[in-house]
Amino acid sequence: MGHDVLSGMSTYRHQMRRVGKFVTLDLSADRVYFRQIVSPLSDAEVALTYRSVDYLVCTSRSEGFGFSIAEAMACGLTPIFPH
Question: Is the model's pTM score more than 0.70?
Answer without folding.
Answer: no
